[in-house]
Amino acid sequence: MKYFSTRNKDLNFNFKEIFLRGLAPDGGLFIPQKLKIYNNAELKELSNLKYSDLATEIVSHFCSPDLEKSKLKEIVEKAYKNFEVKDVVTIKTVGNINLLELYHGPTLAFKDIAMQVIGNIYNEFISKDKKTVNIIVATSGDTGSAAISALSGKENINVFVLHPHNKISNIQRKIMTTIGSSNVHNIAIKGSFDDCQKIVKDMFNENEFREKINMSGVNSINWARIICQIVYYFYAAFKFNNKKICFAVPTGNFGDIYAGYIAKKMGLGIDKLIVATNENDILQKVINTGEYKPSLVKPSLSPSMDIQVSSNFERLLFDIVNKDHKRVSLLMNDLSSKGFFKLNNKEVDNIKKDFCAETINNKETLSIIQETDKKSNFTIDPHTATAVGAAKKMDNISNTVVLGTAHPYKFLETVKMATGKEVKPPIQVAKIKNKKEKYDILEKDITKIKKYILEKVL
Ligand SMILES: *Cc1c(COP(=O)(O)O)cnc(C)c1O
């Protein structure tokens, strides 16, 4: 498969290049030039596969010819061996909700599903090159832990994870900082997730620095994340026998829900994709009004969605302006020069064909966790709660699948606030409580952070 940039259709990259680069050289995001579209007979065949085989089938289209299918199969099987449920994910009925649990990986959030695969793809690409890669990641709490788990101890790889100081949950931080591997470096930045993400993007755009450290990234702008997430939309939809279903997705950087949109474009029968945001509601606003205007991040009870610059939205933008890369560049320029952009009515209508959006505030989040616990004796985390809340505001709940993105233990303080109950630690993290944490605290100053990184790698 060949790729170009949302800001320039004349570029031409293969999978290995976009995997290692992360961000297109013009600051845009990589997208495929053409998608594989499944017909009904092919879909029927896919529906008989177990999860890891389904993943191999779907993901292989995107990686060919740089990764052979047989190699990819090995990679995927190895990645999913250490998940706590047999088929990687599970679907449960909780009251009247269809819940797709995506949090049975080693760090208890859906990000493991893509990251474990990505870790092994790095192995494959790097072992051939023998050059140390330095992976720099910004995290709102869950990407960092998933990346560390997937990459710690790997040869020829260093990982630097930037998280917003004091703005993630204690368990999120502990999972990242207790790993004790010499190739893992945790940095707490005095700022927000948006600050962390901007620093990483700016580093990518500094050619000299990027090349000097052989920099790579695994943030959700990395296309490989998206393709691994497409798989569970197929897996879940297949359980509903050809019924057109909706998905309600807790959304921050627009990566997970965009994967659902790609699944739909590949031929999967999906009705609406329901965007659930917390009070950082930029995506709800752009979908309902066309105005995309980041403001200051409000810390909420679902910190992994405390994001105002929703990077993957640029990928959808490309489609809704009818693949006019000049229009995308213009809008993105407006965003950096004026601080916002505004879509026209036709463009907003294009979004609404596939998406709808709801905002769920902190108070609602707590009452949804409480209600689910009371009525169904089932504990959900605050991110999942926003999606449950959004799904309930729509009138199609029996045909809606809610994505459960994190295990409630990761946010045990919030869950306790809502239910009064303790959450038992799942087996993956049973021992972290007494382990020693290691991280450094730095200002949100790119020069200082670059210096820190250089000292560690050179
Ligand atoms: C990252 C994350 C999200 C948001 O996912 P995006 O792909 O950034 O939209 C939602 N819930 C949890 C638990 C997360 O870790």
Write up this protein.
This protein has 458 residues and is α/β, with parallel strands linked by helices. It has a domain at 90-108 and 226-419: Rossmann fold. It is built from 19 helices and 16 strands. The strands form 4 sheets. The protein has a 6-stranded mixed sheet. The protein has a 5-stranded parallel sheet with strand order 9-6-7-8-16, sandwiched between helices. A 3-stranded antiparallel sheet has the order 2-1-3. Strand 4 (90-94) and strand 5 (97-101) form a beta hairpin. Helix 4 (69-80) crosses helix 5 (111-129), helix 16 (362-376) crosses helix 17 and helix 16 crosses helix 18. The chain is globular, with a radius of gyration of 20 Å. The two termini are 35 Å apart. The relative contact order is 0.14. The structure holds pyridoxal-5'-phosphate (PLP). Pyridoxal-5'-phosphate (PLP) binds at residues 109, 111, 142, 220, 250-256, 304-305, 383, 405-406. Pyridoxal-5'-phosphate binds at residues 109, 111, 142, 220, 250-256, 304-305, 383, 405-406.
List keywords for this structure.
458 residues; alpha/beta; Rossmann fold; six-stranded mixed β-sheet; five-stranded parallel β-sheet; binds pyridoxal-5'-phosphate
Strand order in the sheet with the most strands: 4-5-15-10-11-14
User: How helix-rich are the residues, as a percent range?
Assistant: 40-55%
What is the CATH architecture descriptor of the domain at 90-108 and 226-419? 3-Layer(aba) Sandwich
Low-confidence regions: none
Instruction: Report the mean per-residue pLDDT as an integer.
Output: 95
The Cα radius of gyration reads 20 Å
Name the bound molecules: pyridoxal-5'-phosphate
Count all strands and give the number: 16
Describe the global form. globular
What can be said about the biggest beta sheet?
6 strands, mixed
Using the coordinates shown, work out and report the CATH topology of the domain at 90-108 and 226-419: Rossmann fold
Kindly estimate the percentage of residues that lie in beta strands according to DSSP.
15-25%
Structural classification: alpha/beta
End-to-end Cα distance: 35 Å
Query: Total number of helical segments?
Result: 19
